[in-house]
Q: What sequence folds into this?
């Protein structure tokens, strides 16, 4: 459960090492948790999954069911993290009920195009 050599290994470090191992990328690239970084990781995981599926369908001796399962699990975790990231962004961007109430019922909201400089 994250214990290695007597020390606790945080989830982020485990994620970074697992992605670096599965995809053959550097740990710095695997540790990128920005939107573009996550989308890049997801694209690479999908490509790795397609490759592993093709190996399995061809009956290749290179096919590894454990690698396939690890890729699928990592892909699922990355999608969940992306979904959580996007949900948090939407929550912070949406106006709160209190802000809507402060604005007033009959007041109009100024559009970006109105009154330009």
A:
């Amino acid at each position: 459960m994250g214990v290695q050599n007597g020390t606790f290994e945080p989830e982020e470090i485990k994620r970074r090492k697992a992605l670096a191992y599965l995809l053959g990328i550097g740990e710095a690239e695997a540790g990128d948790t920005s939107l573009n970084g996550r989308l890049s990781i997801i694209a690479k995981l999908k490509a790795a999954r397609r490759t592993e599926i093709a190996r399995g369908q061809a009956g290749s001796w290179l096919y590894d069911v454990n690698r396939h399962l690890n890729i699928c699990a990592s892909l699922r975790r990355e999608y969940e993290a992306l979904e959580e990231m996007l949900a948090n962004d939407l929550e912070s961007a949406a106006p709160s009920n209190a802000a809507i109430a402060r604005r007033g019922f009959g007041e109009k909201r100024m559009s970006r195009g109105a009154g330009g400089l």
Remarks:
- The mean pLDDT is 83.
